[in-house]
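Comment thread on ticket #2218

A.B. wrote:
> Attaching the input chain for the structure job we discussed in standup.
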Amino acid sequence: MIELSQPGDLRFASPHEKAIIDELVLNSFGANPLPGKLTLLNKIPGEDKTDEIIVDGLRFGVLRFDMKDLRFKLDLMIEGAKALLESGIRKKLVKISSKGGHLSGKTIDGTEIIECSDDIGKGDTVLVTDRNLSGFGVSYRESSEIKTRGQSLKVKKIDSGKALFLPKTPSREEIIRASAPHMKRLVKDAVNTIRGIANQKEFMASPVYVSFSGGKDSLTTLDLTRSAVKTPIKVFFANTGIEFPETVEFVRKFCAGNKIDLVEVRAGEAFRENLPNFGPPAKDFRWCCKVCKLAPINTVMEECTRGGRKCLTIDGKRKFESFARAQIAPKEENPFIPGQVSVFPIRNWRAIEVWLYIYYRKLEYNPLYDLGFERVGCWLCPAELSAEYYRFKELHPELFARWNEYLLAWAEEHGLSDKFIEHGFWRWKTLPPKMRRLAEELGINTVSKETKEDFGIVVTGGVSPCRTGGFTMEGRITGLMLSEALNIANMLGENVFSEDLGVLLIRIDKSNVKIFSSGHVSVNAPGKEEALSLFENTAKQLIRVKKCTKCGVCLKVCPVNAIVLEPGLKIQKECIRCGKCTVSCVVAKYFDRLLPGFG
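C.D. wrote:
> Ran it. Output below, let me know if you need it in another format.
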C-alpha cells in the first residue's frame, strides 16, 4: 500500500510528463530504467507544479517546476535511489565507510569516502552506499576533490531497506480489469445520484443540463449522465473567448460526433473589454469568472428557470481538486442563478478513477492532457501553473506573445520589472508567503506604484466619536459626480439630493451618509462597528456604479426588478435593499482590490 501525500489525487503521468522525467533521470544518472514503466503522479504542495512520482508502486521522487530557474527539476526519494542502484546504475555513485551512528542527514568528509564515480559535480544528487546500506545525498564538491577535501557530502537518507522495480509492467487493460469491481461501485453510485435527482417531480418538466468544460471531469460526468437519464440532455459550454483552441475544437467535435445538443455560450470580447477596468485577473481576484462565465450562462439558464421552474445541472467538480472544493456537497443551489440546482456525482472520485473510466469507455478526450496540462481552463487563467503557462507558450507562441505584451506594459505602468511578469508574480493581488520569499531571493520589487485612477476612495478620518452622538468616519472620493452617486443611493437607504448645496444625504435607520460635490464623504452611525460597516458598504456601492461591467447578473437576482443598466447602472426606488445584487456583483466582491488607497 502506497502512503500518498495529501490530497492524494493520483493520476497517470502524461506522455509529456513522462518525457520530462525520463530526460531528468538520464541527465542525472547517465542511464534511465524508467521507460515503459507504470508512472503515476500525485499533486503535492509546492511553489508551482509539484508532483510526487510513483513508479511501479515506489515513491521514486518529486517532479517540480523551479520558479527561480523556470525549469523542471527532479528531487530523488530513497525508494527511487534504491531502485536505481538495484537496476545497475553506477553513475553519480559514492561509496562510504562510516564510523557508525545515524547517517541520514549527516555531513560526510573525504576521509569516510572509499570510492566515487568520476562524473560528480558540485550540488549533484548522488547515490550513496555503505556496506548493507543504500540511499542518496548531495555532493558539496566535484569528483576530483570529493576524497581530498573537508565536508564533501550531505547524506539525505540511507537505510538497509530494499526497493525494486517490477520485472513486468502491467498493461492498461490489466489495470482496468484489476480496478473493475471498485469502478463498478463508483459508477453505480454516480448514476444513482443523477437518476434519483433527475426523476424528482420538480425537474421532470425541463431538460437535464450538463456543464461541459472540455475537461476530463466534465467528460466523465457527461457520459455518466447519458447512461443515467432517458430525458433529453443539453450540454452547455462556456466559451470565455480565452479558451484553448484545442478545447473549443474538442468540445464541438465531441458533441457533433455523439449527436449531443450543444449550447455554446459565448462571452465574445468581454474579457478584453473589461481589462481596462480591472487589470489582469489573479488567483485572489478572479473577476473574469463572473464576467466571462457566470453572466453568459445566466442568460441560458433564464429559459430553463422561467416561470419559477428549477433547472438541473450536472457538474463534474471533485473535492480532491482544491482545498476550496474539499467540502463540496452532493447538490447545491446556485446563489447567483436563481432556480439552478447543481449536482456533483463524481465529487468523491480521484483523478486516476476518472481516467480509468475514460479509458474503459474508450472516450475521446481533450488532447491537451497528453501535451502536459493537468487542467484545461482558460489559457491565461491565473490559477494555471507557471509550468503549464510556459508550455502554452511553446504550443501557441502568438497568443502568448499578445498576452505577455499586455502584462509587460501593465507592469511598466505600475513600476514593476519584466522579471515580475516572467516569474509569475502577476498572478496574485496579495502575494502568499512562498512568493514573497521567492521575490526576496530574486531581488524583485513587488510593490506597485500608485497610478492615476479615474475613480478612487480613500479614508481621511478613522472611526471616532461625534460631538452630536454616535461615531463618524470620513473619506474622499475622486472621479465621481454626485449624479452618479445618486444612481446607487436607493441601494443604501432613503435619500435626498440638494443640487444647490451640492450634497447627497442618505438615511439608513439611525445612521446617515453625506456625499458632497467636493468629494468629501461622511458617515455617522450609533456604533463604531456600524460606522465602519456603513462606510465600507458605501464604497462598494459607489464603485459598482463607476465600474459596472453590465454583465447582467444583478438583473437576474433582483426580486423586484429595481435595476437598470442602460445607459449606466441605476437602482430605482422599488429597491427593497435585500442585498442580493451586491452579493452577486463581481465589482462589489473585489471592491477593495479595485481601490488601492482604500483602507
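A.B. wrote:
> Thanks. Noting for the ticket: The mean pLDDT is 89.
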